[in-house]
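Q: For a teaching session next week I want to show students how multiple molecules come together into a single three-dimensional assembly. I've collected the sequence lines for a complex. Could you give me the predicted structure tokens for the whole thing so I can convert them for display?
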Amino acid sequence: MATELGTSQGHLAHAPVAAPGARHDARSVGELLREADHLARELLLDLSADDAPALLRSWGGLVDAATEAWQAITDRATPPARANVAESDASDVDAMARLRSVTGGITTTLAGSRWPGPGAGAPSLDAIATTFDRVADLVTRRGHDLPLDRPEVRADAAAAQMSLMHTVYLSAHAATSALQQHGRRLHHDSQDRGRPLQLARQGLPYAVGPTRSWVQRLGVCESIAGRYVDRVDGGFADAVPGAATPPPEDPDRLNLALATWDVQVHRSLASDPSPHNLVLACRTQSLVAATTLPLLGAAEHAGRLPYQAGSERIHAAITASGKAWNQMARRWADLAPSDNRADPDLAHTAAQLRAACRELTDRPGGPAIPQQVVATVDLPRAIDGLCLALEAAVDVAHLTREPATDPDLTGPARALSIRAHNDTESANEARSNADQDRDVVWVTPGDVLANKLVPLPRPVSDGLVVAARDAQSASASAASAVAGASRAHRPSPAAGLTLAHRASPQNARPGYPQITRNSPSR
Amino acid sequence: MNDPTMPCRSASPGRLATGASLGTLKPSAEVLEDVALLLHQGALEAWAIADREGITSDLHYLGLGVYLAQGNAVALLPPDHAMSPSYPLIGPPAQTHPGHLVRSAETRLRSIVPDALPGLSSLVLEVCDLAREFADHGY
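A: Of course. Below is the structure for the complete assembly, covering every listed component.
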């Protein structure tokens, strides 16, 4: 259904169909805009660093075509196309003009720039531009018949412009993504040649070399388009200098993300230990453990660990903590319905941390090998930050204990029934026949059929408590094991600082400004 | 099959008929509900596989991305929208694989025109990026 092109659905009511015998595109404005949208989505689905030069070359043409189509709609729908004029503001009305202005600068620079140089454009963006040209032509030739005195017609025009800007937004993101991947490849290649390119100290870390300014400028375009389509997070534009600048004392992405996560997860679990927040907290804590392992492995491979003895114990402890977090996450997921979500702030910081971890351990086509990690990652800084995070995880594990003991917990009947059955079976395997729970119906069939919210069956509530306890224990073991993997100058974890007393800067641990730790009892 | 989110074949004059206007949120909500369910299941499936593979499995962080996208899809639903009770998908592995579920969510999102919901564009972008990530990792 997504591409009902060539039908008369949604056609411009007063636009005549093609004259008999004429080669004419009979699609409506709506159908053309939908095609442009789909072209942009297809581009996003299949994007690589190799696309960066062509996308950059075609960007100006796309914006020119979008501007023409936009203006054609505006000219037809006077007063302004925005349905609710009272709520429009100057930035919305001028969004396309601003976009065109920025793109004009890009095009001018591109003409005299050595990179990417002359060459082929991107067929995808060119096709979108052609589609926009058709929109402009159709609206210009036939739009004069529109009864613009009708509010619904003006609203329709506003919707057309929204659709237009949406496609521009997706296209801008595609271009910045490809440029980012290109910069990343440049950086890795330069590392391999022994002539490393300096990473950007602010904003996107892989905006390197000749791609740096292009990423920034395309990021501005993405931001303009994104704000118009009402996006809260401007995507890459957020990383443009001035929009979200890391503090000078901790410029690297990972440590900032870890510190921000630590603050937010404490805040969110203290105020709202909902199942969704707990699932997100557990899975993200596991990600921290999972990210630490390959970095420690790479450091050991390169002989850069300050210790050699006990590395297997450390590896086992971190693996066990990650596994414990995942087991607890699975249990909380039983209680987390699909119609709800985690705290948006927690989700945002988790997304930032996820992206930061991925940058360290991921390469196009799969995980990075140790040599690649050694060549491209500031291992001491990254390991230090991750080890701090593993120590902080002990605090987080404590925060999961109390919600696990909440007697008022409820969850969907179907998931709880399955979990209770599985837990009972597992428990029975460890018991004698006399002590086994047999033929216990933990959740009624009627409740299962309706998938009602029901109180937790005993095996499930017991399982949650055990999982929280296991996560506490495993986190403490991992924290203890990694203490030797951090820098020698770090203060001892047993600093006697309590979580209840929030930071003053002089109590802050290196690398984590204004974060304190509850020292685990070991 | 008629898709309620498609622009109606209007007999009334004077429509650019670009797509569903803001007055047709209900059909968009139904599509978003489908998307949220697909992403929810995709996250659970990704993590189920990842838990079997071990903590360094790529599907852990891929699943985390899907889970975050599911939350963003839910956030776009009308406050008074009541989702249907969801059940785990049952089917052959190819259809319940998280990569397939994410791609299904992306396809499903195409049936909502971009003007129908503020904030939809960011979700489209997020799901497209996820689908590409899964493909990059061979899923």
